[in-house]
């Protein structure tokens, strides 16, 4: 199997189990492998333990919010982790400007309620 068709793995950091399960099902239908983080404290642990290709990061997760997680990912000593596309998911995108997202190291964002077509499109844009 060529590297192109190798399964890509997405880390979903989301504390709402409803959104988590829906997002996971949608992405699994697209043949992505899913790793979960229930809070911001688990994000880096999961990134260090698994070969992840993309991060879907809820901005309002407990322990450490998404903005903090994004900054930590961008400062990570491992180049593979540091360069990951980070797609923020937020119910209140109006609280942040795209510039603030960029400064935190966020690649792109999706507003809640999630539009699943947009989710798939954005993920494919960054990891194929």
UniProtKB/TrEMBL annotation:
4-aspartylphosphate: residues bearing it: 58
InterPro entries registered for this protein in UniProt: CheY-like_superfamily, Sig_transdc_resp-reg_receiver
Keywords, alphabetical: Phosphoprotein, Two-component regulatory system
Recorded superkingdom: Bacteria
Family annotation (Pfam families): Response_reg (PF00072)
Cited PROSITE patterns: RESPONSE_REGULATORY
Protein name: Response regulator
Species, as recorded: Hymenobacter aranciens
Highest classification ranks of the organism: Bacteria, Pseudomonadati, Bacteroidota, Cytophagia, Cytophagales
């Amino acid at each position: 199997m060529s590297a192109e068709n190798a399964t890509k793995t997405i880390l979903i950091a989301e504390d709402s189990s409803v959104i988590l399960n829906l997002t996971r099902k949608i992405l699994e239908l697209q043949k992505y492998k899913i790793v979960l983080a229930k809070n911001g404290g688990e994000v880096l642990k999961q990134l260090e333990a698994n070969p992840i290709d993309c991060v879907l990061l809820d901005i309002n997760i407990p322990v450490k919010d998404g903005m903090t997680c994004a900054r930590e990912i961008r400062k990570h000593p491992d180049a593979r982790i540091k360069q990951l596309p980070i797609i923020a998911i937020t119910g209140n995108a109006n609280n942040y400007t795209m510039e603030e997202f960029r400064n935190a190291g966020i690649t792109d964002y999706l507003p809640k309620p999630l539009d699943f077509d947009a989710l798939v499109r954005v993920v494919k844009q960054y990891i194929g």
